[in-house]
Specification:
Elements lengths: L1 E9 L2 H12 L3 E2 L4 E5 L4 E11 L15
Length: about 70
């Protein structure tokens, strides 16, 4: 089974730690990161797609992807 997640959040150290944590749990970067500016909050927001292959499991819409 191939899994996909899109991590999003403020472009800060906490976001980088979330991506790093996912990489260390077997997820891989998929494509380039995206950045956008939220003029209302003055924050730069980031997004990074990640993917993971999991053998021996079938996908179900109720599964928690972050726990795979």
């Amino acid at each position: 089974m191939k899994l996909y997640r899109l991590l999003t959040g403020q472009d800060d150290a906490a976001f980088c730690h979330r991506v790093t944590d996912a990489l260390n749990k077997g997820w891989a970067l998929h494509g380039s990161p995206s950045l956008t500016f939220n003029a209302q909050t003055g924050q730069v927001m980031a997004g990074q797609a990640i993917v993971k292959d999991v053998e021996g499991k079938d996908y179900h819409p109720d599964m928690k992807l972050s726990e795979q």
